[in-house]
Amino acid sequence: MAETSPAMTKGKAMAQSSAQTKTTAVPNDLEPFWMPFTANRSFKKRPRMIARAKDLYYYTPEGRPVLDACAGLWCTNAGHNRDPIVAAIQAQAAELDFSPTFQFGHPKAFELASRIAALAPGDLDHVFFTNSGSEATDTALKIALAYWNVKGEGSRTRLIGRERGYHGVGFGGTSVGGMVNNRKFFGSLLAGVDHLPMTYNRERQAFTKGEPEWGEERANALEDLVTLHGANTIAAVIVEPMAGSTGVLPAPKGYLHRLRAICDKHGILLIFDEVITGFGRLGTAFAAERYGVIPDMICFAKGITSGSVPMGGVIARKGIHDAFMKGPEHVVELFHGYTYSAHPLACAAGLAALDLYRDEKLFERAKALEPKWADAAMSLKGLPNVLDIRQVGLTAGIDLASRPDFVGKRGYDAMEMAFHDVGIMVRGIGDTLAVTPPLTVSEAQIGEIFDKLGKIIKAVS
Ligand SMILES: Cc1ncc(COP(=O)(O)O)c(C=O)c1O
After folding, report:
1. Can you give the pTM of this predicted structure?
2. What is the DSSP letter of 146?
3. Residue 180: per-residue pLDDT
4. Rg for the chain (alpha carbons), in Å?
């Protein structure tokens, strides 16, 4: 495995030095921006401000480099500000800024849909574009409900998610999601939702590399839900093949196969939320390929444009799409869509990102790096307060013991210290540190990431 991907080295030194030498003015008043999923008061006292980026590095307004160990928010899979993506966005902005995709079309939308369908397994061959992962999951849930309607099985309205699942912040995604803080402030959300149990048990699987041996049988809980509610009331099950936002929980061996078999037995649609796992994160285009399990729909976002322009979508099996293609041809078949579905800038960025993934073999690169990545992650075992380390593909989750006074404070301190004092961005999820670098990460940078994390973990002990 090469130390750096070929395109990274080209022009890298120049781009990095200009990113470092430039400085950026920061507004005095930070108050008006109500920041998402952020401890606003704490941030505004000691901002973690980012002004520029190139490849694996962010730069603060003063030009201080910060190694990006989380691909932004699990999304910049090709690294930051890659020249071909930048050029594609610039050219597209000059050629076609916007055109509607309601009753009209532009060529790149069709081209991108074909390219995504070609990467998806089996007969997942139709792509519905959204602008985010949250819209992708809500779209998939709505397609599932509408599908049963057009098939004449309108009693199938129940949606099933999983404890510790994250499917974005729309009403549908929040309802099927299984993160307590994301649900408890928002009342009853959608009715007719149930949850499978989570697949994690620290005692049974701590410090496992890759997919744990324990947990396959947890899929059987779907049989219990069928017994409880009746299969004829269940529209779909949605799961992440690797739950990222609750701290990197890989699917247990055999779990997804078993879920598929139970869904098949009862005619339930299976949706994989691949907003994080899509586009190479687990060493294949989609996790469905890694596990050899074909879901009925795949939700994607993030990596499709390598994070450069917002975009998401749903890939549906032919049978699902075709079920809607009936009735008079002048009538809209699915009453759903977004003004910015398949926005020209996002399509241009998506095509350029897919070219980079292909030309630099970045999915294969992630696969080849996984054993080294796993060893490096597990090297932190034994450090103070490290309760578990999980890893799959180019992701790792490190659970730290909570401080007795405040749950989440040790993780927050680690994230803050990492940024300000050690020059690395990691994502603190409560007391879990999530690490998910761009797929262009070099072996030397993998070493640097875990060395720095080791220092931080000792410092917050
Ligand atoms: C699995 C999964 N689904 C959905 C989403 C929501 O995506 P977005 O934040 O783009 O709405 C995320 C975001 O992290 C995610 O990890």
Report:
1. 0.95
2. H
3. 87
4. 22
